[in-house]
Predict the 3D structure of the following.
Amino acid sequence: MQDFLIFRRYNILNIKTLSNGVKVVFDEIESANSACVGFFVKAGSVDEDDSNRGISHIIEHMMFKGTGNRSAVELSEEFDSLGISINAFTSEECTCYYAKSLPENLLKAIELYTDMLMHPLFDKKELGRELKVILEEYKMYKNNPSSHASSMFSSEIMKGTSYEVDIIGTKKSIKNTTREMVVEYYKNHYCNENCVICVTGKFDEQAVFDYLEQNFELFDRVKDREVCLVQGHSSYTSYEKDDTEQSYVFCGTPIFGGADDRVDAMGILSTLMGGSMSSRLFKSIREEQGLAYSVGSRVEFFTDIGLFIVSAGVSNKKVEQTIKAIQSEIEKLKDFSFSEVEFLKAKNLYKSESIFDFEEMHHRMVEVGTAALLDNKYDTIEDMIRKIDAVTYEDVKAVQGLITDMSKYTWLIYSDREFFVDRILAE
């Protein structure tokens, strides 16, 4: 009864489709005092090739650099004058432009984004300036050891797939991007069939739908996505950087994609392994052995593929011990499984974190919008809770075999010297 009282204020998601095929997901929260809108486009790094790496991210930047109706300065001033918070992000599988505003200013935010997405200038001089900014962003990430190591690991574990290359691209691809390339990619990917709009919070649903129906339209074509997926493999990479004061250890293995019914079971298993201060990895590697300050596990899901990942930040002198400790905990899971008590604790933690995230409006909008765009699923918070509650001990036990085969793990060590991971694991 208590759960019902807490969550009854959430309406069932209402999904409508504009006459041009664009889906609009309405997620009304009666108690909210603000609104959030996101325009999701199926254009990400998996849609690029060697000739245009990073172009999805470049277009994300350029959308804020002026339209046929407004200059970049005019756009920012109109957003700011109404207290509308704006931002965007590019991922492997999509680009999202979003805004958070007071309910009375939501239509204005939608109007401005409509202008940006439909009438971008892609001015040649402005593009040249923005490419320099993106190169500085590239340097910033590469000069951050933790970020750089994580990026290198992602590329290594996804090697040979459409997910291998950094979202930001390479120095060469960024410098070589032309206006003609930007326009061509925009026309090919910013299509009605590739777009979903998600509105969350407090808003007038009919007014929003009527405005979009009358004013929003992208290109009328279908762009099929072809993605090369990962196959189970192992690799051992050691990256040396003389001046690093801390080492970073990453390992991971491929699992199923985000549309799989076992996602929550795997999420609970990851929580049990390394998702909290009482998780197996944290207790063993940090509390009992004192090897690392930060250590944990996580799952990453794309449409048709997922990853189970373990990471740790450790002293340069404790890398070998940490590698063997991670190996030990993964192999213990295979040998001794886990108790009912561990399962219930991890399930409660996983459920709590999922609800906490969904309570934050921006996160909620991103989750719902991304799912609607990529999976064609429209879960409410009630759906999410029901699915988690339905996961049993046996469900989690059934997926543990997917992460205990050490022969399928990819490892990356970022440290001050070379490490031969295969030899360490074999000892």
